[in-house]
Design brief:
Layout: H1 2-29, H2 32-53, H3 64-73, H4 76-97, H5 104-140, E1 148-149, H6 150-167, E2 171-179, H7 181-188, H8 190-206, E3 213-218, E4 221-227, H9 231-251, E5 257-265, H10 272-288, E6 294-298
Parallel strand pairs: 1-3, 5-6
Antiparallel strand pairs: 2-4, 2-5, 3-4
Length: 300
């Protein structure tokens, strides 16, 4: 019996999770106006149920659902509007159900207190949303340069590799580091080196497509994922970045260049680690040949 009970609980949790995810995806695809109308209708439905059940059974907590959805999927401003609407509907439902006030002042106090609670809830929920989004950004980005951290880079690369066989498009991974960067840190301090890394990251990002992903592997080493890009196309883009890198660092008064390893595959026959390792090998080959160079290779 315990095993059967655990199975039922597991299936229930799985079903609820799938339902919530489907709902979340649906709401995420809607326009701001559509979402506002949906939540307005939810408020009216809750108000009708509130009216039918009467003032003796309080369902006030259910007014918070459309409010929370509005704040999360639209913004706090629309949340304030829903707060006012929900408060008015809630009080109307109570009045039509038969509730009375011995003094009109109490009505206005009740209205003000309910509206204040709605506003406070909306504000707190908005802060929760902000902190959640901040944590998502921090979990995905390198704190120094603002580009993808290596963990997030691995996740996206794994997804692209999973799609590779299905779409039969080439995918290219670039590994590069900055030649002579250690000298900048030794002579000028790490704060200058950090500024230089940020400048390089911004420059490289500006030369990539929106579909490309730039990540920092650590130190002065970076990785670039270029989906649907063959070796020749990648070399053109990276050569432009190589030349721009020299110009950017020269403007900052440093003689810094880059060594680049470019590896392209057309179907999956390696892991993310192996993919990165192949481009890393090519990068070291470029460095051994005199730095400020590009080495490329093509897999299957």
């Amino acid at each position: 019996m315990p095993l059967k009970s655990n199975s039922i609980v597991h299936n229930l949790r799985y079903s609820l999770g799938k339902t919530w995810q489907a709902t979340f995806d649906f709401l995420s695809r809607q326009s701001r106006l559509s979402l506002f109308i949906i939540n307005f209708i939810v408020v009216i439905v809750v108000g009708f149920v509130d009216l039918v059940t009467g003032f003796e059974i309080s369902i006030a907590v259910f007014y918070l659902l459309p409010l929370a959805l509005t704040v999360w999927f639209i913004d706090l401003g629309f949340g304030a509007i829903i707060s006012v609407i929900a408060t008015v509907v809630m009080l109307l439902a109570d009045l039509l159900s038969g509730i009375t006030y011995t003094n009109n002042v109490y009505f206005f106090i009740d209205f003000a207190s309910r509206l204040a609670f709605m506003f406070i809830f909306a504000y707190v929920f908005d802060r929760l949303k902000f902190n959640y989004n901040q944590q998502k950004v921090l979990a995905r980005t390198d704190s120094l340069t603002g580009v993808a951290n290596i963990r997030f880079f691995y996740e996206i690369t794994a997804l692209e590799l999973a799609l590779l066989n299905r779409h039969n498009h080439p995918i290219t991974l670039v590994y590069f580091d900055l030649d002579n960067f250690k000298g900048v840190n030794d002579r000028n301090g790490h704060h200058i080196g950090d500024d230089l890394l940020r400048s390089v990251a911004r420059m490289v990002q500006s030369n990539l497509r929106k579909t490309d992903l730039l990540g920092r592997a650590g130190g002065d080493e970076f990785v670039i994922l270029m989906p649907e890009t063959d070796n020749k196309e990648a070399i053109k883009v990276i050569d432009r970045i190589r030349l721009q890198l020299i110009k950017t660092t020269d403007e900052n008064g440093y003689e810094i260049s880059g060594s680049f390893g470019i590896y392209t595959i057309h179907k999956v026959n390696l892991t993310v680690d192996a993919f990165i390792k192949e481009s890393d090998k090519l990068m070291y080959l470029a460095k051994k040949k005199g730095k400020n160079a590009i080495e490329s290779g093509v897999g299957l």
